[in-house]
Amino acid sequence: MNRLLTRVFTTLMTLAVACSGDKGFDPEQLAVGPGGLVGNGDPLTPGDFAGGDDVLPAPREVTPPDDTRPPDCDGACVSYCNATSLQNPVNRGLCRSLWGVGLSHQPINHPEACRRLFVDVLGRLPTAEEADATCTGGWGATVKRLMDSQEFIFINQRRAADKFLYSNEVVNIQAIYDMDRLVEKLYRGKVPYDLFAAVVSAHPVLTRRHADPGDKVESLFRLFLGRPPFEHEKADMARIYRPWHSGYYDHPQLGRMPDAYLKFPCLTEDKKAVDPIRKGECTSVLWGYHELVFVPDLRAATDRQLNQLTMWNGLLSPEEWAQVQLPGRVLATELAFWERAVDDVLELYLGYELSPKVPEVRAELVRWLLEHQGDIRSVHYAVLTSAAYLQSAYGDTATSYRWTHGPMKQMDAEVWIDSMARNTGYTTTGCDHRISQPELLLRSSSIAAYRVLQSSRWILDEEGRIEQSYANLARTLGGCPENIIGGRFRVVSILTTGTQLAFVGDLCNPTMDADVRGAAIERLLPAGVEPGRAVDQELAGQIATHQYRELLGRPPSAEELTEAREAGAQCALDRCGAEQFARPLCFALLSSAERLFY
After folding, report:
1. Confidence grade of residue 24 (pLDDT, cut at 50, 70, 90)
2. Domain range holding 358?
């Protein structure tokens, strides 16, 4: 289809949507699935968690352990930690391997802490003004304020998309939207973590994604226990995944889509009753006796390809959904399930596995999570306000014990791009984690599919084509994954470094190329400074202070300010203007490691 035909087709679809008056299909209410059956009441807890502003103890006055052995907390150490009255569970668990044995932590400075919190909780870097205005009034209050924001919900929905590998080529897009809705309920505190796992265990995002019953079991174990199942576990649980079948659903507006169906094994030949001999093939006995057998009724239809009866998952009643969610409920009875839940949060924010090194932290967090009715937000809050998180990653460390200094992590591609654009005022588009392959919808030539794209986070140009520049850049850097086989990745390589430098070059335009749009010079200069104004040491310092605050979210150090003024003195000899100084400085700051690691 050439551009003219594409434009005509787009116009006709838009007119058809406007004139049809169709109220039966709402692209903004696309979610259909079991996620709509849960979490429709009030939050589990008020969200006012304790331990946000613990007064941290000084190290006990003993000889600290050397790096050749794990810390050994004796009776005096235990008594010391018990007397600290720490409320934060991470701090309580950490004490016996840190302060109680004479080790000290490495306190973080406020700008570094705020910068880290913005990236982890909101998915972007702040400007200095934004950090000053937000990170005030006590650290616990700051964390709660950011966790209550829509950006916190969104970044965790994107993380879930990476975890569950959303792909609209493999799974019904309505089920993906439903899973996205379920994740929102989880992070609004309306769904306990064990119920979340139960719903996921039978959700089409999992059951349609993996065809073989054993593959479904393996995926569930890796997601919620962090390990593959043992052979006897896999064989046993696979029996209650036998009824699931991967098929296709003909949506009245969106057309043919992949979806999960139920088959009816373990029945008599006439499919009217449970076969007393074969029902063992649909029964799990490892975690108690759990039989999962359905008898078909009027909702079932013959699948021509299989030549057997199947039933679309969208016809299941709430009671039947509860039945098929048995695998997740079984796993939630295991202590390892809750341990993995808190380990995931620890690794997310710390960037390393703390629990194997300090298992007391895991034990305290599991107890904390259960005390808060499975509200996973309580664990996020505890880690974000803990001494383990609020340590600096800079400077010399006294020991190699990992928990005595702060995390250092690489930013996701979208965080890097979005922060760059936001801080410079550069306009970008984006991608939508719910629709990893938008071209499949556009290719369907369906008005409803086009409306879904229009309502999504994908941007369509005036010719009705998907704007892919953002996605192409992000995918080169490991983001916006298509999730067909693999997902997100993080890497530092010649290719990614070259891609990043090219993007920063487009943003800052250090060569002042007339053909490069670049960021508006007004964003790179202090208010009232004209682009052509002659640079001297004082003006160079003002420009540097402005850019450090806008682009790095902090004021320059004394050494950095001195370097900027010296560069300004050299610039004055060449009679350069403010813009000639500001654009190369922008490139230097945005291409620094500080913009990639945090």
Report:
1. low
2. 78-150+334-404
